[in-house]
Amino acid sequence: MGRWEGIEEYICVVESGSFTAAAERLGVSKSYVSKQVSLLEDRLGVRLLQRTTRRLTLTEIGSSFFGYCKEMAEQLDQAESTLSEMQQSPRGTLRLALNSRYGTQYMAGAVAAFSRKYPEVTVEVNSSFQDVDLLSENYDLTVRYNKLEDSSMVARRLGGHLLCLCASPDYWQAQGQPTC
């Protein structure tokens, strides 16, 4: 039995005042709720509820345990809610490593547009001629000219970059054209 098993049922029984009402609220059978609470009591080695044919009351230790369980359930609800909000609207810090030449020429506009679209994300940009180690330096993203050395990284080709050698006709005539 996992540490959380039976706790949701226990909270529901206490809040509802009966196993029947808790079962209806949870959409399960009364016997399932009763068994889960009994297994929880067995695992803890204490009696949480005093049961009679007419009444259900908390024991002293059951009352104390309920307070802790309720607090944990509320914190779990808050954590799930926060996670859901974070998935809806990105927030936090995005660490980006750019090649100086490419970064300043092509990525500045994209970073600015991203920052306008997601104002709750702080973008930290490192622009350098040297490649950085993404893992040890905690970068989330990089834009590079070359292939990644670490094959566990996911790489996407963004495009190509043509290089050309240009000179005036007078230069070519005086120096000759290079051969590749």
Structure description:
With 180 residues, the protein is α/β, with parallel strands linked by helices. Helices cover 48% and strands 14% of the residues. The chain has 6 helices and 5 strands. A 3-stranded parallel β-sheet has the order 4-3-5, covered by helices on one side. Strands 1-2 form a two-stranded antiparallel ribbon. The longest helix has 29 residues. The model has no long low-confidence stretch (mean pLDDT 87).
Keywords:
180 residues; alpha/beta; Arc Repressor Mutant, subunit A; D-Maltodextrin-Binding Protein, domain 2; three-stranded parallel beta sheet; 5 strands; 48% helix
Tell me briefly what this model is.
By secondary structure, the chain is of the alpha/beta class. Helices cover about 50% and strands about 15% of the residues. It has helices at about 5-15, 20-25, 30-45, 60-90, 100-115, 170-175, and strands spanning about 50, 55-60, 90-100, 120-130, 140-145.
